[in-house]
Amino acid sequence: MRVAITGSAGLFGHGLVEAFSTRHEVFPLTRADGDVADADAIRAALERVRPDLIVHPAGIPDIDKSDADPDLAFRVNYQGTCHVASAARALGAALVHISTDAVFDGRKTTPYVETDPTGPITVYGRSKLQAEEAARTVSRHWIFRVPVLFGPGKTNFLEKGLRRIAAGEEFKATLDQLGCALHTVDGGLKMMELAERSAPCGLYHLANQGTCTRYELARYAAEIARLDVTKVIGLPDAMMQRRAPRLKYAVMEMAALHRAGIEPPRPWPEAVAEYVRSLKL
Q1: Given 46, 170, 251, 259, which residue has the most CB atoms within 10 angstroms?
Q2: CATH number reported for the structural domain that contains residue 36 in this entry
Q3: How far is the C-alpha of 84 from the C-alpha of 34, rounded, in Å?
């Protein structure tokens, strides 16, 4: 397959390029190649490539930045997806769209399934929920809601924390924000598997197996890196002094993945251990 990947300079984009390159001809697209917020630019970039599949992680992933600039969030996350979907329809390409657990309201106490009602509490979540509707306009589409990401290629939550600890600093992480985590390459490989097997189109939750708080995630990574775990400071979300609210509960069940007969990604501790050992701290 010829696979175009938007946002290839980003964290998830890097992991997706690595995953899909194992078996397909990949065309990484950065904002310089074709800004998704510019309909003509992204259409021209995709027309040059003429892909069979477009994988679309490009967007504004920062919850606080989205809250501070809603116009930018909707222009990139929602309208950008409209532009990518329009190009996919014109080219007859299938679409893999990356969404988020932030489309939920965080009030449940049992895992969210794909059929649960949404209710985003942030600008970011609302922009991504509208983007899902845009992705559905492509006849062959797969929408993947993903949690907090870690992986190679770009600094992320875990690497940032580990570098601070290695420098002798403290790293603060929330104690009361329960969810899942996903290694970007693991996610990319599962998306590729679904596309290759022509799995049923629609909505999927995707994460490494198991649940964790941000504190548990950071502390385990520090332990694997043989750093001082006491430097990981657990705080309640209310004390983190962040602009936008976070979901207290964002655990996702991968019901659609199971129905498609596809095994979920490995447990998150295994993925974190492999990732941490690949870092040069």
Answers
A1: 46
A2: 3.40.50.720
A3: 10
For the stretch 6-64, pLDDT in tens is 999 999 999 999 999 999 999 999 999 999 999 999 999 999 999 999 999 999 999 99
Over residues 85-107, the pLDDT tens digits come to 999 999 999 999 999 999 999 99
**140-169 residues labelled b (16+ CB within 10 A) or e (exposed):** ebbbbbbbbbbbbbeebbbbebbebbeeee
Please work out, in degrees rounded to the nearest 5, the angle formed at the alpha carbon of residue 200 by the alpha carbons of 198 and 203: 125
| Angle at CA of residue 58, ends 77 and 86, nearest 5° | 70
What does pTM read for this prediction? 0.96
On whether the CB atoms of residues 140 and 94 are closer than 8 A, the answer is: yes
Of 237, 234, 265, 233, the closest CA to residue 249 belongs to 237
Is 49 within a domain? yes
- Taking 3-state DSSP, the helix, strand and coil percentages for the chain, each rounded to the nearest 5, stand at 45, 20, 40
| Residues spanned by the domain of 141 | 2-150+180-208+251-258
The answer as to whether 86 is a domain residue is: yes
Indicate the SS3 state at residue 145: strand
What count of other Cβ atoms lies within 10 Å of the Cβ of residue 90? 11
